[in-house]
């Protein structure tokens, strides 16, 4: 209660104060309190409701990446194409965390990071994760900030993963080097395709005639293998249906 008086008289009034919490958002547009809440979740069943992408872009990215980190079984298509991720040295809960998560994620089949500001440091981490990933089918990293070394790492680590299921791999047109990755990178992709029988589509420019020819022939070989597998599977399915009908 507040009282006041003067020569004309006096008066009293009740004052009510309300404390309103101020939402803290840093320069990258991330609500740090919400981000901490998301990061604390250890079970995907406890995941909070999806933040509004248009309203809280950074929060939505952190929410999406944490789903990948927790290996959300409903998240099979991860698409940040044309969405600008903050650099890893400025925000470790998005690009660096996503790159690491792909080492143990068993549900994401398509990872689309076209023009997403993926940096070479995270490219190296992602390459290391691909050494153990057994689920990913389609990977598109075109038009980012990878350098020759990180692109080469992708090839060498995939070559060491006999269980890789990647069918589509696209790394062309990086902003720092364009399509000129250099002969060592072209050689690494050549050796990868010699050994790998899963890759059916490759977005990679090769200027060296020898390695380009080897890569082209390997892709044709892999597609031929894939056609034969489909034909064989169709035959087995037809045989199973015929056997089931005969048994009736």
TrEMBL record:
One of the GO biological process terms: pointed-end actin filament capping
Primary localisation category: cytoplasm
Coiled-coil segments: none
CC terms in the record's Gene Ontology section: cytoskeleton
Location within or outside the cell: Cytoplasm, Cytoskeleton
Record keywords, A-Z: Cytoplasm, Cytoskeleton
Taxonomic superkingdom: Eukaryota
UniProt-recorded Gene Ontology molecular function terms: tropomyosin binding
InterPro entries (alphabetical): LRR_dom_sf, TMOD
Alphabetized PANTHER family for the sequence: TROPOMODULIN (PTHR10901), TROPOMODULIN, ISOFORM N (PTHR10901:SF6)
Protein name per the record: TMOD2 protein
Organism: Symbiodinium necroappetens
Lineage start: Eukaryota, Sar, Alveolata, Dinophyceae, Suessiales
């Amino acid at each position: 209660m507040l009282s006041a008086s003067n020569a004309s008289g006096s008066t009293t009034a009740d004052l009510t104060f309300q404390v309103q919490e101020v939402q803290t958002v840093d320069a990258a547009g991330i609500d740090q309190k919400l981000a901490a809440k998301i990061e604390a979740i250890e079970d995907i069943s406890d995941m909070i409701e999806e933040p509004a992408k248009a309203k809280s872009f950074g929060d939505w990215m952190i929410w999406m990446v944490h789903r990948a980190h927790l290996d959300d079984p409903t998240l099979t298509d991860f698409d940040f194409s044309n969405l600008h991720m903050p650099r890893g040295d400025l925000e470790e809960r998005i690009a660096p965390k996503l790159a690491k998560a792909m080492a143990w994620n068993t549900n994401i089949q398509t990872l689309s990071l076209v023009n997403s500001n993926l940096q070479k440091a995270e490219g190296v981490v992602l390459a290391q994760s691909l050494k153990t990933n057994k689920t990913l089918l389609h990977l598109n990293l075109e038009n980012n900030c990878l350098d020759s070394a990180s692109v080469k790492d992708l090839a060498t680590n995939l070559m060491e993963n006999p269980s890789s299921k990647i069918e589509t791999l696209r790394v062309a047109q990086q902003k720092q080097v364009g399509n000129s990755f250099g002969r060592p990178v072209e050689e690494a992709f050549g050796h990868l395709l010699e050994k790998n029988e899963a890759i059916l589509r490759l977005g990679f420019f090769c200027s060296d005639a020898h390695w380009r020819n080897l890569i082209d022939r390997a892709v044709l070989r892999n597609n031929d293998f894939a056609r034969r597998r489909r034909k064989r599977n169709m035959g087995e399915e037809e045989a199973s249906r015929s056997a089931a009908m005969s048994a009736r």
